[in-house]
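dumping this here before i forget
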Amino acid sequence: MSIERGRGQVAGLPTWDRCAVMGVVNVTPDSFSDGGRWFDTTAAVKHGLGLVTEGADLVDVGGESTRPGATRVDEAEELKRVIPVVRGLASEGVTVSVDTMRASVAEQSLAAGAVLVNDVSGGLADPAMIPAVAATGAPFVVMHWRGFLEGGNVKGTYENVVSEVVDELHARVEAVLAGGIAPDRIVVDPGLGFSKDPEHDLMLLAHLDRLRELGHPLLVAASRKRFLGRVLAGAEGAPPPARERDAATAAVSALAADQGAWAVRVHEVRATADAVRVARAVEGARTAGARTAGVRAAEARTAEESGISGTPTARGAAGAPTAEGAR
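structure:
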């Protein structure tokens, strides 16, 4: 099976022939990446439409920062930030995801036109989330999560980060299935940067195949995160600001696409949209090459079974006499 066919599809969402690109619209004043830039509803909707123009397949709207140390906003404020933006984008035909840990925000966003719920807690932050999503039949992103990041990078200790994240995600997926969400509507996310140090994030990226073994489409959200800053800084340098990590983000997007990710979530869309298309073209060439090699091998086997070799020289030796033999 090719990676492309193993990428998976999500019921209730469009189907793409490559890794999809999820653009980010943060309607927050305190996001680590672009806090405050799209806080106004009109600006946020305009930005979301701009992301689609640049190549986003779907747009993820969030009204609460999940950066380490962020203070939670109350429900009324989150609804005030998110719902008008979701409604505005959906009315323009955009495929909208809502990034929330609250069941009430998820429900009202879906009613306003969102089609996917992206919960970084995987339903753990709000016990009402799973029943609410199950009742609507919407797809649901289950992210690996070990708790709120208030006060820093909590519970980030692992003996084997890949095995532990896979096992914990598996357990969470089982709980989500038991809660009534259909298996073909579940997406998994390794939760890069959430209770993880840079070396953990890199190790997970190196083993996305293990996450795909969970049997659900995979979302990779690496955009502008701290581990990329560490990589770019090198051993001694200072990490560049979040907005200067977009080229590194596009590199991760290409790697994730090549490893069969269903989608990548990014702030700057254009470079990643190009990256996943190149990855798809290379994947297509790889598949075509394997197909050609298979045809040639089959032809060679057929020829061998018929007693006819595949080269003119050998045919001369085994079949009709050569000119020298005729003399």
